[in-house]
Design goal:
By secondary structure, this protein is an alpha+beta fold. The chain contains 20 helices and 27 strands.
Length: about 1000
């Protein structure tokens, strides 16, 4: 930023060490039980919850530092080399020249919540018996460092195989020296030196640095630790540990650039933890993000090896004490010269103290050859994690002869696909296909084919948090939200959630006049603080708005429907100030949207129109603006979407919360590429450091459970009756669900049942029946698997992942009935009573095709109205989507058949009964008061398949959108 106009550069003030020490996390037994995700069917804790993922998994491991070197089976004794090193650690008379370091780690024990079937997710690392972190200001010693590594050897990875060394991840002022604890370089000692804790004999660096710089007598431990000289990275008197990517581990692929090279990873996409603090009681916790080969190509975790098995990787934890490798003991008593642990964890002597744990990854991708023809599925991103699990199992067991593909798409795209004709695929949805068009008052499309709906999964929406504070530490309890608090957070009504609130600059930019009496952010809202006393107020200048996805969906509409059920929220959205927090008012740009008045909108807008203007250096003339810029400068403008960009999808939102990687934008960078491909844009802020984190997002339960985020509890207006998306609460909501006019079940956010969770959704597989017999058969197999073996909870391929509630038996039976119907359509038996008037139409290639060719299916071009989306009702009103539930019965009901017509779907049970298999008729046919032409024999066999299942059903739901232990210090404005 340049004078005269600008905001202060971003940054956060450092706490005094009393703040740090007072904030050291004291991990209780309840925190130790938090592990996400987990396998319910093999849980080791009776407190495991399938929906939230909280609880211990069967593959959790606890390892003491004394036995911390594990092989690729996670055994500490099977390999002789590792067993010998572990024996020395636990010996009363160790022989290692580095044994002076052991005293700091002797009682350290680490627990990792999950070690098998790992994907891109979070795993919980907890520890006990550690030495409390020390320091008389910034952290000096006694902390943990963590990293993910590849390594195919049974004995574990080498330092070269680990992602570590990104710049910008340490809290400012952590080290007054070189802060090499976050780097891949260090000092070798003088030739022939040996470690010594005698200050008069402690070795010094070969380059002349004193003993306090912590030279390593074991380095360079490998010839590659000396960068080629002469060369760009040749530095006399130091060693450099290159990164060896899995894609090119040879000498030609070694990367010596360290933090200056972002080819493989950087502060924005690494999962390394450079400083995890241990509390005064010796305990600590860190949620560690595991990366697959998709997010970290340099590691390749989960990718296929030569034998087609997924590549495993390693979690490496390097504990740091109060000794450097040369024997230097840092000064921690507050007298004399303050000193710090300064050396890299990759340095040979520090590396020798590591704990290494093998992680078995799930396969990345389908593991089928590129170009293999795929069976298309698409739809709501709520089903993403379930479908990823199911397709892996189905593709592998099918030996890639049958390959299911999945793409998350908006609701309107699902409608377009199913009206396109041909083998259009299977759509996952929470609403009737085509009903998204009615949300803005448009009519439902009239060109839909006959569609069968099968329930396959149950999930929910929630808000996930990551809060680490310098006073309270890691916040592990659920965060309580009322409809009013959520309405405030979604409407840019807190001062720091608008781009032009900068009263401290010169000349000042105080922000909009309507916001002057509003709280700075949600943490300073008295109503929020009253419900969440463990969350300290954050008077920083950073925005604390939730991360949101940009889409039009029934999911977003559901959120607003829950808010609209609140008298307090609707009054405030309509313009009534909130007396509980100094008469806070709504952003007028959002008030104009009438958000408190039904019908609820289906988006989460960034509607504030105010902007922030600033002068920045430029070679062009100043732009026209109320701001006068000096010569050589021009006006640059920050808008709401620059301050608060949308996230891509639920997965990316949850990952960003876990890593503290807030997408809000900071200082102007003249070299950055703007969205319009011009040079100059607002720079991305670095991740929020441990101890300085407050970030949250609107998300779905499968991703919240996978990444281990702290969930929100949704409360009533009084802040009572708070409910989280637990297994019990979601089960209650499903039981309270009601069918819409198409027979699909939905949970009313205003009436989810007593103690039911209001944002619960049932996901259906929608299959157009005007597809080939082969396609119908493939989709029948998928539905049968999803509703059968796919409902077994766990984390292995084919399991139902955490965050999903297994289908109740009635819904599972309903899905199996649909699978039976599809198989009958694909391979119908001859009709027992053939009628010449009901024979297949001329030119029909198969009975399945004959059954649907007259159903009104048209080309994609003629169904363009189906792409219209907006913000009205969640489902068509009766008559706009004139379909009925077709419920299975114990005996075949008689369907009247004449020579002039074939069939019309009818309810075989009471119309008030939440339906069985649902058939959606072509709307053009029903609107005209006619029935579609259909081969009688084929349809009779469909009904026989329905009748076999028998019984009536009840159940519930709607949603969409596609595409650690730390201490928080009060934060300054990070934006500019």
């Amino acid at each position: 930023m340049t004078a005269p106009v600008g905001r202060p550069a971003g940054g956060r003030r450092l706490p005094s060490w009393p703040q740090w020490s007072g904030a050291l996390v004291a991990i209780t037994a309840s925190l130790a039980a938090l592990s996400l995700p987990g396998a319910a069917r093999a849980a080791t804790s009776t407190g495991y919850d399938q929906m939230t993922g909280v609880g211990s998994t069967a593959s959790a491991i606890t390892v003491p530092w004394t036995q911390g070197l594990l092989d690729d089976t996670n055994s500490s004794t099977a390999n002789a080399t590792l067993a010998s090193a572990n024996a020395d650690r636990s010996s009363a008379s160790p022989t290692s020249p580095l044994s002076f370091m052991y005293s700091d780690f002797k009682t350290l024990t680490v627990t990792v919540s999950q070690t098998q079937d790992i994907g891109h997710q979070g795993i919980t690392v907890t520890w006990s018996g550690g030495e409390p972190t020390v320091g008389s200001g910034p952290v000096q010693g006694n902390f943990l460092q963590m990293m993910e590594c590849w390594g195919d050897a049974a004995t574990g990875p080498t330092p070269e195989q680990c992602e570590y060394g990104s710049a910008g991840l340490l809290p400012g002022g952590t080290d007054t020296q070189d802060a090499r604890i976050g780097e891949r370089v260090g000092d070798p000692c003088t030739t022939g030196a040996v470690p010594s804790t005698d200050p008069s004999k402690t070795p010094v660096s070969a380059n002349g640095d004193g003993a306090s710089y912590g030279c390593d007598t074991e380095e360079p431990s490998d010839p590659t630790h000396t960068a080629p000289c002469p060369g760009t990275y040749c530095t006399a008197g130091t060693f450099t540990i290159p990164f060896s990517p899995v894609s090119d581990p040879t000498s030609t692929g070694l990367d010596y650039a360290g933090a200056t090279d972002t080819t493989y990873y950087s502060q924005s996409n690494t999962d390394e933890v450079q400083l995890a603090v241990t509390g005064a009681d010796g305990n600590g916790q860190q949620q560690f993000e595991t990366l697959t080969g998709v997010q970290a190509p340099g590691l390749g975790c989960g990718e296929a090896e030569a034998d087609n098995s997924p590549r495993g990787c390693w979690l490496v934890i390097v504990p740091r004490g109060t000794y450097e490798p040369n024997g230097y003991h840092i000064n921690v008593n507050g007298s004399g010269i303050t000193s710090f642990i300064d050396t890299s964890p990759l340095s040979a002597s520090n590396w020798a103290q590591r704990i290494q744990i093998h992680l078995d990854f799930s396969p990345v991708g389908s593991f089928c050859a590129p170009g293999t023809q795929e069976i298309q599925t698409f739809g709501t991103q709520l089903v993403t994690r379930a479908m990823q699990s199911w397709q892996l199992e189905l593709n592998q067991t099918g030996n890639c002869n049958t390959v299911y593909a999945y793409s998350a798409v908006p609701e309107a795209t699902s409608t377009l696909n199913l009206t396109a004709g041909g083998d259009s695929g299977l759509a996952f949805t929470t609403i009737p296909i085509g009903s998204e068009a009615t949300r803005d008052g448009n009519p439902a499309p009239t060109n839909l084919p006959t569609i069968l709906y099968a329930p396959v999964a149950i999930a929910a929406l929630d808000f996930g948090f990551n809060i680490n504070d310098g006073t309270a530490g890691y916040i592990s309890t659920p965060v309580n939200l009322t409809p009013l608090l959520l309405a405030k957070a979604l409407t840019q009504s807190y001062r720091t959630d608008v781009p032009d609130d900068y009263p401290g600059i010169s000349p000042p930019d105080p922000g909009p006049s309507w916001a002057q009496s509003n709280p700075t952010n949600i943490s300073e809202d008295p109503a929020f603080h009253a419900l969440n006393k463990e969350v300290p107020m954050d008077p920083s200048g950073s925005p604390l708005a939730p991360l949101l996805t940009e889409d039009l969906s029934a999911l977003n509409q559901q959120i607003w429907q829950w808010i609209q059920a609140s008298l307090d929220a609707t009054a405030w959205l309509g313009g009534t100030p909130d007396a509980s927090d100094g008469n806070m008012v709504i952003d007028p740009d959002f008030k104009a949207l009438n958000l408190g008045t039904p019908p609820a909108i289906d988006s989460l807008p960034r509607a504030y129109t105010g902007v922030f203007d600033i002068c920045e250096p430029s070679n062009t003339a100043p732009a026209s603006s109320s701001l006068t810029c000096p010569a050589g400068s021009q006006v640059e403008t920050k808008r709401s979407l620059d301050l608060l960009p949308y996230t891509d999808n639920y997965d990316s939102a949850a990952a960003a919360v876990l890593s503290g990687n807030d997408p809000d934008l900071g200082e102007w960078d003249p070299t950055a590429l703007a969205p319009d491909d011009t040079l100059g844009y607002w720079a991305k802020n670095p991740p929020e450091p441990i101890g300085q984190t407050f970030i949250w997002a609107a998300d779905d339960t499968p991703d919240l459970a996978a990444y281990g985020l702290i969930p929100a509890q949704l409360c009533d207006d009084a802040g009572t009756g708070c409910v989280s998306p637990s297994t019990a609460a979601v089960t209650i909501a499903v039981g309270a669900a009601k069918p819409d006019s198409s027979g699909l079940l939905h949970v009313d956010p205003a009436n989810p049942g007593t103690n039911g969770y209001p944002l619960t959704d049932i996901i259906y597989a929608a299959v157009a029946t005007n597809q080939s017999a082969a396609a119908l058969s493939d989709y029948a197999k998928l539905i049968a698997f999803a509703a059968g073996s796919g409902q077994t909870t766990g984390t292995a391929p084919g399991d139902l992942p955490p965050g999903y509630l297994p289908l109740p038996s009635n819904l599972a039976s309903q899905a199996q009935a649909v699978a039976t119907q599809l198989q009958a359509l694909a391979s119908p038996s001859p009709s027992p009573s053939p009628s010449s008037s009901s024979s297949s139409p001329a030119g029909s290639s198969s009975p399945a095709t004959a059954a649907t060719t007259a159903s009104g299916t048209t080309t994609a071009a003629s169904s363009s109205t189906a792409a219209s989306t907006g913000g009205a009702t969640p489902t068509p009103t009766p008559g706009t989507t004139p379909t009925q539930a077709l419920a299975a019965t114990s005996s075949l009901a008689k369907i009247p058949v004449t020579s002039s017509s074939s069939y019309r779907a009818v309810a075989l049970s009471s119309p008030t009964t939440p339906g069985g298999p649902v058939i959606s008729l072509p709307q053009a046919q029903v609107a005209a008061g006619t029935t579609p032409q259909q081969a009688v024999g084929a349809f009779r066999w469909v009904l026989i398949g329905v009748a076999i299942v028998g019984g009536g059903f009840a159940g519930g739901g709607t949603i969409l959108r596609s595409g650690g232990s730390g201490l928080l210090i009060w934060r300054r404005r990070r934006l500019l």
